[in-house]
Amino acid sequence: MAKIGLATHGLARENPRFPGQAMIRVRNLSKSYTVHKKAPGLWGSIRSLVARQKVVKHAVRGVDLDVGEGEILGLVGPNGAGKTTLVKMLAGIIHPSGGEAQVLGHTPWERNNEFRRQIALIMGQKAQLWWDLPAADGFLLLKEIYRIPDDRYAANLAYLAEVLDVEQHLNVQVRRLSLGERMKMELIAALLHEPRVVFLDEPTIGLDLTAQRAIRDFLLAYREEHRPAMILTSHYMEDIQRLCKRIVIIDDGRFLYDGPLDQVAQAYAGQKVITVHLRRGDGSPPPAEALAAFGDVLTAGEDEVQLCVPRERVAEASAYLLAELPVADLSIDEEDIGTIIERIFRERRVEGA
Ligand SMILES: Nc1ncnc2c1ncn2[C@@H]1O[C@H](COP(=O)(O)OP(=O)(O)OP(=O)(O)O)[C@@H](O)[C@H]1O
Ligand SMILES: [Mg+2]
């Protein structure tokens, strides 16, 4: 594990891709939160009135990053890894504890107008539009706030509403929209002023597959037209795979990997996934222990068994499954990137334990 983390970490620092022209530049950026802990129960509450115990959480630990024009960088990591904290610092919402960042030549947390006019932050978990207004009215307010010229505003709104297929919902109060419709309105709100740097923190969370796909296609189209630098976090690997050529893997505030997405797969694709579909009613699946002897058991149900197996054991495992189970069909596939990344995190947990 350390191999890939250490070997590629220098990539960010040397900045080989965008010498002198990164739109986002981050150096040794850190953020620690201080939280006051109390012991559980009533006594804990009373004691905490007298002596509060301070605990420092290092959410982001000295990271370096460069993102260039037209690039969508995928930021991937488990819950609590520091993704939102990093994005909030770069969008200027919170101050760092140390280090530097430049976004379009500005220090984000100084939040000067020039900076604010050129960036957008979209958070799937947090609504930014006014709930009691129809989206169309909210957009008009944003037009004034950002001083968007009439012709650009009309053209952008028409384009965004059409591509995202929400024209018929523009005059409905935001609170009455479905989650997917609202998210599309949030995207429009964030992009009306044609930002050159866009931060997307889980923009497709909770959306159905059609809406997720619409948002992905839309982001690709926006990228082609405006060539912004984007940072995208998502727990959906489909988002990352469709949108990002380069990813950063973050865990516990540190970057484990910064480089091409396909190289993560190559470096870790030591495994294959065997899927067998079973004929119904022909007995129960074999005990999980027997399957686990070959590798990770991803599924072990009455209809389907799925194993992630080291390459050299694929033949042996397939032979076992064919002999022992009522196999209707069997397929052997490369592990998908989501499974690979999950495995990286799991192995780290075990190593660290
Ligand atoms: N305002 C805060 N005060 C104290 N601790 C915080 C605060 N915000 C975040 N943290 C802590 O910092 C760490 C990183 O949180 P962050 O929200 O950046 O994670 P994340 O990678 O975005 O996770 P997720 O995938 O769940 O969204 C977590 O341990 C979290 O509990
Ligand atoms: Mg988050």
- Total helix count? 13
Q: Which bin fits the share of residues in helices?
A: 25-40%
Count of extended strands: 13
The first-to-last residue Cα distance is 14 Å
- Which structural class matches the secondary elements? alpha/beta
Please tell me the overall pLDDT.
86
Write up this protein:
- This protein has 353 residues and is an alpha/beta fold.
- The chain folds into two domains: 2-266, Rossmann fold (3-Layer(aba) Sandwich); 270-334, YebC, transcriptional regulation domain (Alpha-Beta Plaits, 2-Layer Sandwich), CATH 3.30.70.980.
- The protein is built from 13 helices and 13 strands.
- Helix 10 (261-268) crosses helix 13.
- The longest helix has 18 residues, at 209-226.
- Residues 33, 35, 57, 59, 77, 79-85 line the site of adenosine-5'-triphosphate (ATP).
How would you summarize this macromolecular structure in one to three sentences?
The protein has 353 residues and is of the alpha/beta class. The chain is 40% helix and 27% strand.
Key features?
alpha/beta, 27% strand, disordered N terminus, 13 helices, globular, Alpha-Beta Plaits, 353 residues, 2 domains, binds magnesium ion
What is the secondary structure topology, with strand pairs?
Layout: H1 2-14, E1 24-37, H2 41-50, E2 53-67, E3 72-76, H3 83-90, E4 98-103, H4 113-118, E5 119-123, H5 135-146, H6 150-163, H7 179-191, E6 197-201, H8 209-226, E7 229-233, H9 237-243, E8 246-251, E9 254-260, H10 261-268, E10 271-278, H11 288-292, E11 296-300, E12 304-310, H12 314-324, E13 327-334, H13 337-352
Parallel strand pairs: 3-7, 3-8, 5-6, 6-7
Antiparallel strand pairs: 1-2, 1-4, 8-9, 10-12, 10-13, 11-12
This protein binds adenosine-5'-triphosphate and magnesium ion (MG).
Magnesium ion binds next to α3.
